[in-house]
């Protein structure tokens, strides 16, 4: 019997999430759009994640397991290569889709021109008792050719995207060497070749968990530095954006106690764009010593302002 390829392949990487994975899988199975397959890639879990996944008696579900942990990027790449759908979506094992997520995105693709490769949406980030809507208004252009806007920082949530599988033919998938921010790097690459469409409403809940890799500040800083070097030609085209990225790296490193490297990045920031006032003020602040810097940093965090 010939098996027809599904419209959408949903890739779910997971690692030791036996207590959460059911919610993520069920939210995909409950979609109003049902022409799909679910590829769960178990990244070497040592808890009973595998048993939970196998308990789902649904032919849409496919299970791939690594014998040892390789990281979320490797797991997602495995899922992409195994996918049979024309479109690929990514679900995180601790997140929850709204039932109409895929249906709304497929409707947008149905009306979109061929240069659109990605349809993504807003989402609610759940942190303890807070519900925060993303992406923020800091990013002004959220659809079309958003390459330059993405160089300012990432605002495309991985579990929100629906992406044409053909997009990966011109890219190197998720960078498995990055310790964090691998989604940002991939969107920067894809945005060189395809336009993005944005649905300005939340279509999922993203839950903040204590062991999230993106909560590790050292990983974030290392990844940010690597991405800047990897795409330096693109960042160089807009000196203000490059300066702001150097500023973010510099202040992040200083906050982590690496004042020597942090100061070097702040100097780079002012060299590429002399009118960056926040960099100038931070460099002046550092003249008064590290203890003064930390006092101002803590004050800025309390007031919600950045130094």
From TrEMBL:
Entries under SUPFAM superfamilies matching the protein: Nucleotide-diphospho-sugar transferases
InterPro entries: Glyco_trans_2-like, Glycosyltransf_2, Nucleotide-diphossugar_trans
Enzyme Commission numbers on file: 2.4.-.-
GO molecular function: glycosyltransferase activity
EC primary class: transferase
Keyword annotations of the record: Glycosyltransferase, Transferase
Domain named Glycosyltransferase 2-like: residues: 9-148
PANTHER family: GLYCOSYLTRANSFERASE (PTHR43685), GLYCOSYLTRANSFERASE 2-LIKE DOMAIN-CONTAINING PROTEIN (PTHR43685:SF2)
Protein's name in the database: Glycosyltransferase
